[in-house]
Each structure stands twice: as structure tokens, then as C-alpha cells.
Specification:
single chain, about 120 residues, mainly alpha, 2 helices
Length: about 120
């Protein structure tokens, strides 16, 4: 494969990697927003049941922990996705710039003649 074909293939590969990664990030973001609204709705339903300050503080602490854990999980998932995309892009670039291996004739070892 000549250099122009390699570069065209590299461009195509990088485009596909970027498109897939961005689509997955958009899907993750949509799910994260839905989860955020669900958590808010859930804790909003519990709020009218609060009758004292101690239970309100406990509910607020639980809400904060839930939001923090959800945000941490979302960031870990996005980080893993980006690491995967970068690894794929690295492999694509390395294969595009790797020297081509050609079959070369190996020298034949001649057996020494007995004297």
C-alpha cells in the first residue's frame, strides 16, 4: 500500500473512531441527565415527608452522596471511553506510519563439505 492510500485509510479510521466516540458520549450524557432528573424527582417526593431538621439533614446528605456517586461513575465511564478512543487512534496512526514489511529472500546457509 502506498503512502497516499495509507493516509486516506488513516483519515477514514480516525473519522470513524471520532464519530463512534462522540456518539457514545452523547448517549452517556443523555442517560446521565435522565438519571439526574430521576434522582431529583425521587428525593423531591421524599421532601414532604420530612418533619424535623435531623431527617432533613439526613435526606440532604443522602441526596448529596447519590449525586456525587452518580457523577463519579459517569466520569469514570467517559474516561474509559476516551482512553479506548485514544488507544484506537494511536493504533491507527502507528499502522499508517509503520514501514511496510516486504518479503526478502533470506540467504541460504550452505552446508560445509566434509574434507
Amino acid at each position: 500500500m502506498n503512502m497516499i492510500e495509507k493516509q486516506a485509510e488513516l483519515g477514514k479510521s480516525l473519522y470513524e473512531i471520532n464519530t463512534a466516540a462522540m456518539s457514545e458520549i452523547a448517549e452517556m450524557s443523555r442517560k446521565n441527565i435522565e438519571q439526574y432528573f430521576e434522582v431529583n424527582r425521587s428525593f423531591g417526593e421524599k421532601l414532604p415527608e420530612v418533619k424535623e431538621v435531623g431527617s432533613f439533614v439526613s435526606l440532604q446528605r443522602e441526596y448529596g452522596e447519590t449525586l456525587f456517586n452518580n457523577a463519579r461513575e459517569a466520569m469514570e465511564a467517559q474516561t474509559a471511553l476516551m482512553q479506548s478512543a485514544f488507544a484506537e487512534a494511536r493504533d491507527a496512526v502507528q499502522s499508517a506510519f509503520a514501514p511496510e514489511v516486504t518479503e526478502t529472500a533470506k540467504p541460504k546457509v550452505k552446508a560445509k563439505k566434509a574434507a
